[in-house]
Amino acid sequence: MYTFLFGIVLLIVGYFTYGKFIEKMFGVKEDRATPAYTSGDGVDYVPMSTKKNSLIQLLNIAGVGPIFGPIMGALYGPIAFIWIVVGAIFAGAVHDYLTGMISIRNRGAHLPELAGKFLGKFMKHVVNAFAILLLLLVGTVFVSAPAGLLYNLMNGWMAMGIIVTLIFGYYILATLMPIDKIIGRFYPVFGALLIISAVGVGGMMLVKGVSIPELSLTNFHPDNLPIFPLLFLTISCGALSGFHATQSPIISRTTQKEGQGRKIFYGMMIAEAIIAMIWAAAGMALFNGYGGLNEMLAAGGPALIVSEASTMMLGAVGGTLAILGVIILPITSGDTAFRSARMIIADYIKFPQAKITSRLWIAVPLFAVSIILTQVDFNILWRYFSWANQSTAVIALFVGAMYLFIAKKNYWVALIPGTFMLMATTTYILNATIGFGLPMNVAYIGATVISIFLVVLFFFAAVKARAAQIPLEEDITNWKGLQFNE
């Protein structure tokens, strides 16, 4: 219990201390016009309030990741708490803040465009393909997961195919419509339900005196699987997630002032980490330890854990509301995954999106591919998603480090977590059966060599980029706009 509570306190303190440090180091320009005004188009570039942007950002980034991931990570025991807390404060929230703020400084640019500017034109093409792949995987996973939860919640009275069709129908509308018509209008309500459900489960565990395991050297390590790198890919969205790098630019196009960035980007990552802590604790405490949790996962996966934990803690009615909150999470990330993919492709091919027919030309093929992917086994999709997700986080952190290096600011805040995750993702793909299948000791050596080489390459490129004086932000000196207030 004390490990869990101390972790929650550290997350809150981290927002007010390290978050403030990152904001001050980055250097907010309150008088600089944001893309919501300089590029306003009534579709993707629409100014919205801090509260609305914060709740949308939370729902965008918090898919099933901060629930399913921590539940599976709970097999490692309380050490999962350490990764969630340390990862969120020093990696995930920094990742989200830098991605969002650098995007604001560059016309709301998405990660591929930022990678092209700060890591070279070749990386723009690589990251563009990588980001679209990730978003397609996310969108597909976030159709399958909520559809399964809804099917169980309704005891199978509605066919799975109909549920999937309805979710896809919603995704199409949310992808095509102006951001303030559906997402901006309904997400604040969904956000409230999400927070209430998570706080409800966590609060009742405390009220009922549920025994949450404390950190020790003996109560983790499932089936002798290595903590590194597996834990750091299993728990992603609650600690560090590259998917967030595809979502923050959506809100960078609706943010009114740069000073709102810490609440929207850094703060919502901390909020997501608190959600992850609650579900990790539920997984560890409510099913008779590692053995019981493992059996439940084998029987019905994380979705079964969510259903059982919600009902156990909140009763039939409260549990149903909590499950609905969890169902909302992937749906409200899946729609913005497709929206982000549409925007990235449009930016890449320079295809204006003001007309709905232009949006359809891009969106229809995306949904067609996703429908095909729904036929692939969920567990296989999740493994590829986990690796692609954290590899995207590495790219985003290196973009942030390059930006800060060129600006002669503290680039280590991004480079250190970026290098750590580079080592983790490389080790995983070298060892995993979905990768190269090498023995773990060989994977460790190979990942170390590759990571050192890429970091050295980064410094060579960074020195060259600083000498070339690459502009860090879009020139808006000729922009003529009205004064604005929240």
UniProtKB/TrEMBL annotation:
This is Carbon starvation protein A. The lineage of its organism: Bacteria, Bacillati, Bacillota, Bacilli, Bacillales. It is found in: Cell membrane. Keywords: Cell membrane, Membrane, Transmembrane, Transmembrane helix. Its main location: membrane. InterPro entries: CstA, CstA_N. It holds the Pfam family CstA. It comes from the Bacteria. Belongs to the peptide transporter carbon starvation (CstA) (TC 2.A.114) family. It is a multi-pass membrane protein. It comes from Sporosarcina quadrami. The chain crosses the membrane at residues 6-22, 58-76, 82-104, 125-151, 157-174, 186-207, 227-243, 264-287, 312-332, 360-381, 387-406, 411-430, 442-463. PANTHER family: CARBON STARVATION, INNER MEMBRANE PEPTIDE TRANSPORTER. Residues 4-206, 295-427 form the CstA N-terminal domain.
